[in-house]
Write a structure and sequence with these properties.
It contains 3 helices and 5 strands; from the N terminus they run βββββααα. The protein is an alpha+beta fold. The protein has a single domain (9-90), classed as YlxR-like (Hypothetical Cytosolic Protein, Chain: A, 2-Layer Sandwich). 18% of the residues are buried.
């Protein structure tokens, strides 16, 4: 009798669906207050999770879900940088 491994679940701030942590993109607020994309999923700071889709990103921007999850205001320049990075990842 083997034990099944528990898969950590996270909620997307865009579509509000629960998915596996590895299936999602982590956006991180560092201790210095900058917002970056955490590709490893292991960096220190407050994180918010998004699905790998542009629709979820746009929903998170519209509903201010990213700002609530990171507990800080997000500038439009930061949103543009994140959009470019997500498009680059989605294009792979």
């Amino acid at each position: 009798m083997g034990q099944t491994k528990k898969i950590p679940q996270r909620k997307c701030v865009g579509c509000q669906e629960m998915k596996g942590k590895k299936e999602m993109l982590r956006i991180l607020r560092t201790e210095s207050g900058e917002i970056v994309l955490d590709t490893t999923g292991r960096k220190n700071g407050r994180g918010a999770y998004l699905c790998y889709s542009r629709e979820c990103f746009e929903k998170a921007v519209k509903s201010r879900g990213l700002e609530r999850a990171l507990k800080m205001a997000v500038t439009s320049e930061t949103y543009e940088e994140l959009k470019k990075e997500i498009d680059a990842i989605e294009g792979k």
